[in-house]
Amino acid sequence: MQLTQLTGSRREIGVGHGRAHAGLIRSSIAVYDRLFQDFVGLDWGQARQEAQRFGAMIEARFPAILEEMAGIAEGAGVDTADILTLNCRSEISLTQASGGCSAFALAREGHQWLAQNWDWRADQLDNVVALRIEGDDAPPLVSIGEAGMVAKIGMNAHGIGVCLNAIRSRTCGEGLPIHVALRRILESPDMAGALAVAEQDRVCSPAHFLVAGAGGEALGLEVHPGEPGRLPPRGGVVTHTNHLCAREVTCRVEDFPRVDSRPRLARLDALLDELPDDVAVNEGRLFEILADHHGHPLSICRHFNPDQPAEERMETLFGVVMDLDARRLILRHGKPCESKTSLEVTLPAA
């Protein structure tokens, strides 16, 4: 996979994104057209109408990003409403669709690590993009996500990083759509700024954001329209899969996790507990955790499962490891157990 470099104003960043990935953006639209029909019975036109209600929330909390979305649409030759719909895809399908992502943060020997597998439908594998964005009004950042979307998983030059776990829930209220909130976090100068996205801007549907910063800071945030749940590190470790854990959230928000979420979390905890204290941690060791097949095919490294209905089959589409103190991100596109090459990105410290 190649890294797409985007610079300039919001509009210029958007147009560059749209031009570079016009074909993949159209392919993403086709994937979500099918997904919305599979999960919530909406065709693309109906999904576009559904997405419009989130535009006002974005306008109130992060208006600059709407300029970038319009630029993406211009560059790709699609409607701005199409790009808004892609960026609200979690909110449109949140009642049914839930991926199988596994994420963890680890502080060890002066390095704050952040890592995860992103599990989703296999027809979105080729629409994954790596963006390095250097805007006029925000810190340099790198985001690994889906073509046409403003952010997903990544880090910035201040050493702030974020991972995402989907939460299946019927809750939806006022706040930023999940992927817009992730971009807001990636533009934060510090952990306080990242936390403000969850506490002040709020996130309109439930998800887990694993936020960490250079210098050994990490916090799990179970976001939703209300006060976020907080999961502090235990022995320098935070782990999460696809169910809610914080008591202050579980008493107010109902989630519907798939059966493998809790076993994967237990396996993550066990693997991190087994890391010897006297052995140096590097990205190779952490990718070994992401490549774990315990409980296959519903394992941390998730494979094709013919026993599931076709529309619900999720596979690991990429694994990512970040060393936030070094401002270094390493991506393995595809399953970590199979991927032979890595994309490595380093940002200058801000």
From TrEMBL:
Molecular-function annotations in GO: acyltransferase activity
Gene3D superfamilies for the chain: 1.10.10.2120, Penicillin V Acylase, Chain A
Entry-linked InterPro entries: C45_proenzyme-like, Peptidase_C45, Peptidase_C45_hydrolase
Acyltransferase found in the keyword field: yes
UniProtKB keywords: Acyltransferase, Transferase
Domain of life: Bacteria
Peptidase C45 hydrolase domain residues: 109-336
Keyword Protein biosynthesis set for record: no
Pfam families: AAT (PF03417)
Identification of the protein by name: Isopenicillin-N N-acyltransferase like protein
Lineage: Bacteria, Pseudomonadati, Pseudomonadota, Gammaproteobacteria, Oceanospirillales
